[in-house]
Amino acid sequence: MRRVWASALCLCLLTGYSARLQEPYRRQMDDLSLLRVAGVDAAAVGVELTAAADGAGEVLRAQKETLAGALRATREQGERGAFYGHVDRLLLGEELAGQGIAPVLDCLARDAELGADCRLWVVRGAAAQAVEQVSGLPARLEQLERGRNVPGAVDAMGVLAREGSLWLPALAVEEGDVRSAGYAVVRKGLLVGYTDPEGTLGLELFTGSAVGRVVEVTVPGVGAVSLSLQQVRITCQPHFSAQTLTGLDVVCRISARVAQTAAALDQEAMDWLVYELEWQLGKGLVRVLEQAQHWDADFVGLEGRVRAAQPSRAALVTRQWAQVFRDLDIRVTALGAVEPPSA
Fold first, then answer.
1. Angle formed at CA 149 by CA 189 and CA 34, multiple of 5 degrees
2. Which helix (H) or strand (E) element contains residue 281?
3. 100 domain residue, yes or no
4. What's the distance, Cα to Cα, between the start and end of the chain in Å?
5. Can you name the residues that pair with 330 across neighbouring β-strands?
6. I need a surface site. Which of 47, 244, 284, 314 has the fewest CB within 10 A?
7. pLDDT tens digits for 230-258?
8. pLDDT (tens digit, 9 = 90+) per residue, 280-297?
9. Which residue has the higher pLDDT, 206 or 85?
10. Among 268, 43, 286, 298, which residue's Cα sits nearest to residue 166?
11. Are residues 100 and 126 in the same domain?
């Protein structure tokens, strides 16, 4: 019985002590500027970090040799100091991404406050522009992320280590706002280019984020028809000559539904819709694969699909992929199905 009472007494003492410790901590948090988004750009020496405090209109900025140093400097700036624990999106400037994102990823992996789960964007231009000029930037980014699985820092590190390249969503700053600007392609840690509109569609077909996207088709005698993509399924069939990977068939099966039409659709019009759907989406797939091979960057994850298609030759594919990917003969087939509009 004495042991039970002693344990209860210790618990009460510890609970009371903890409560007394928490009150100053709450006051300290109230004195800090809570940040939601930050941008990192290349500087003459090192990097420049830009962050905007919620509600205060105050911009924090520091240039240091490393991102870790810039974070320390901005935490001590301003009237209230800065707290990065709520930052869940980090914008990378174009010049910085061209010099290499590995130091940024390494810092995020080590910084306990900022965290390694920050979602990453690349800004076509300077990241500071977006942070300083766009009102309500966190809400705009959240809107642009809908339907996308934007990589976090941990995910980006893992993909780069496994596959050597990855995609990050790109932004453009225009007249005080931001818009989606395709995808930035990173190979061996360096920005190598951006997907164009057709390549963007192709990449979204590979990633699954094209589901729900609306495709516009013009039908002779009917006019414009809007198709909503419902399902996308991509399969890969590799071809070997002896023990060498020589080619690859990529088959994309797409189902879509008529979302809007100005006139009734007969069977001929429905057949035309299927043809146009296959043509547009097939062009997107071809274009993104052309860009991937041009940059020698398998950012669409073809190697993993090929290994999954031929498990018995997975090790063979892994050994050969870096040597054969750029010149691999890839043939694309798009197979579409269109549902008529709901009654």
1. 85
2. helix 267-295
3. yes
4. 75
5. 248
6. 244
7. 999 999 999 999 899 999 999 999 999 99
8. 999 999 999 999 999 999
9. 206
10. 298
11. yes
Tokens of 199: 């390549």
Whole-angstrom Cα distance, residue 147 to residue 213? 9
Domain span at residue 292 reads 197-343
Are 121 and 207 in a shared domain?
no
- Look-up: residue for tokens 């007494």? 9
Q: Indicate if the alpha-carbon torsion angle 215, 216, 219, 225 is positive or negative.
A: positive
pTM of the predicted model as reported, rounded to 2 decimal places: 0.86
- Rounded Cα distance between 215 and 217, Å, is 7
**Are both 103 and 220 inside the same structural domain?**
no
- Give CA separation, 58 vs 55, 83, 114, 129, 250, in Å: 8, 13, 19, 14, 51
Contact present, 37 and 138 (Cβ < 8 Å): yes
**Backbone torsions φ then ψ of 294, nearest 5 degrees:** -60, -40
Residue corresponding to tokens 């990917």:
325
Cα separation of 61 and 156, whole Å? 25
Tokens of 22: 């928490």
Q: What is the C-alpha separation between 70 and 300, in angstroms, rounded?
A: 34
Domain final residue, candidates 174, 194, 214:
194
User: Tokens representing 75?
Assistant: 């935490």
